[in-house]
Amino acid sequence: MEIRPSNHSLECKLYRNTIIMGKRRSRSVETEVHKKIKIAGDDINMFTSLNKTYYPNAITALEANKFNNGKRKKPYDLLIEKTKNFEISGNTKTFIHWFRNDLRLTDNTALARLIKYFEAAKSKDVNCTILTIFVINENDWMAHLESNWKIDFTLKALNSLRIQLSELQIPLVLLQYKEKVKLSNSQSFATWFRSQCTSLSNGQPVLVSSNIQCETDELYRDIKIVGLTDDNFSFTLYQDLCVVEPNILRTLNNRPYSIFAPWYRKWCSFIMEKRYSNDQLVKTSSFPKMNYNDSFQFTKLDYAIPSYFKLEEQQRNYAQEQVSEDFANKTLDTFLKGCGRDYNTAKDDLATEGSSHLSAFISSGLISTRTIVNKTYKLNGNKLANKDIKNNNSLENFIREIAWRDFYKNAVCYWPYLSMDLPFNLSTMDIKWDNNVENFIKWCKGITGIPVVDAIMRKLLNTGYINNRSRMITASFISKNLLIDWRWGERWFRRHLVDYDLASNVGGWGFCSSTGLDAQPYFRIFNMDLQAKKYDPKRDFVDKWIPELKDEDKEYPSPIVDLKASRQRALEAFKEVF
To answer: What's in the GO CC field (predicted)?
Structure first.
């Protein structure tokens, strides 16, 4: 395959929209050429600016800061406050679990609790029923730039979950919200959702359970639904997403941690102090495997996925085929017994990728992080971490990666604007990004002329997955060497990762671009040559994804930037705001 430099016009200009404490910088006008540009079938505007169709009134830094100074309540706190005094109605006849990013039966807190409520009610009234639902709102997929890889993964997971549930005689009902340009955080969605649930219960009192999600849109969605509860409709939520519940770990000044190292030590101490049993470090939930409904009809999931959300034919060769809770656990077991022992040295290798490959299963909820911690802890001789964390062995550092997930989810709960397209460090919105559209396109396509960057970006585009080292390399390159707003890259990753998780993605990009929580110093800029030599020493990875480098008859582009000069430019730009 011949790869040539992009010939998109240099006339393409993009406005820089940076609102700093209510003040707006001047911005250039979008040209007609810019509006027509597409990358991998998507309009470029999807990545270079917030979607104004769904978010016409983007939050400003001034408004975001109200979450920090207490002038605006955090949606996570609001939801906890509204649901803390939940009491089930004694007349409840129908019990519904709403699956979201928890597509499993094992260690599913809300599902286990709901089954307990159901069993207690059925002991008094045999006519009680239990069922599960999953809701599709394509508007959410569009607004959140959900990747086709992840959608494909989710639909496969639902099919395997449906089979699991059928063995318990519990139906899985697929609901689709079809109103145009309405997100699930809208009042119209909340009203529709309530009506769907009461319809499923034939007008009888219904209880709906679900596990809390930490993203701002999802929190406001649940707040609106909770506001519609009455004698006929109850909605209860549970903590399930993290190993340690958000907002539990605080500093001595009762503040949230913004630095990972002390938070991680506190996380480890808390878990060890609360150790559940000799067999289980962290408590997990369970329920008996039995037939729960007297009658049951097995039905297919009725959903015709639009072509826009489908994987392309060549991408299907790389799509994960085995997507189930059982396979997620087998993947964990295989990793722990194999390359998990060499995690410290193997996880960053670009060619062999000695990582667990569990991230997609975690983000879609086919396995809980509590299960991962419990199994790893036990295999490690009942050790969670070394006293000196710098000396953590491979299994301990694997658990540490789970702690990072908790850390970032805690952050999104406490600083909601992190999931509203703003950086943790609001002052970095004043960085004078170059935002060269042509360079951005070349970065997306993997034709920058920097082999290690291009190989990674091509792998992402073709497979929907790259390891953490790859993400750090490409994020550093675009935000520092190309001096392009990190949010452009974050959106591109969002649209193409099979394992996309908002908290982790935003957290990782904030770290690499020096704009986020516990970020690397702005003057730390990856040396691309050294990264390639260290993590692809035999060039196996680069040769696989850039075959034209070995073929003299094929053209490979010259570098779009001088690495040394671009490093200096980045230092000067970042120094202005630090």
So the answer is: cytoplasm; nucleus
